[in-house]
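Entry 12.
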Amino acid sequence: MKVEIWSEITCPWCGLGSHRLDRAVERFEHSDQIEVVHRSFPLSSGFPENRTLSVREAVMAKYGAIPEQAGALDIEGMATAEGLAPYRVLDNRVGNTDLAHEFLAHASAMGKNREAWDMFFRAYFGKAGPIFALDDLLGFSDKLGLDREQIREVLTERRYRQQVQDDARRAQSLGATGAPFILIDGRYAVPGAQGSDALLGLLRTAWNEAHPVTAVAPGGDTPACGPDGCVVPAHP
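Predicted 3D structure (tokens):
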């Protein structure tokens, strides 16, 4: 069964939502038959490509409030309580992530979808590491065992720009207005960073609907008990 999750790398709810999905899949009885696929939902294309801002600057510019008033500390606390520590939101920088999403699209084409997305979330939220410039991204290629020069060429030519845009458009066609956004078995659309209990329940529902149990009635009398007592088969 396929589970797709659309995210923006620098979105703190996306990092937490991905973690919650992983915990739900781990608890699911058929976890070995679940394929989790990460997809792009860029939300920072409006930032200039040649510079970054501190989270505090970005929040002040957008909301006219300091991050503490905008709920950033609540996210850090929730992430810590759920096993993500450190989870750095206030200490981070934000910027245009289009190139990073294109790197992730290439890594996915090379069979590194989950590995690459997990590595980016850990680097960005766990270490407040840079993920914006070409040189930043080339460093990830070594850790993933990908060809550095090939990635330089791919990103310079922007070969995956259209695919990233198509990913976002598909999510929007399914009803997504933001990220994270999860699609379970192509049928259950889940907006936002839902809790792992709720996600586990949806995994079970989707699985049971796709794998209905068919009762087989054997011929003849069969020993059984019911509300009216137990029936003993008659012997000739």
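Annotation: The mean pLDDT is 89. The chain has one domain: 2-210.
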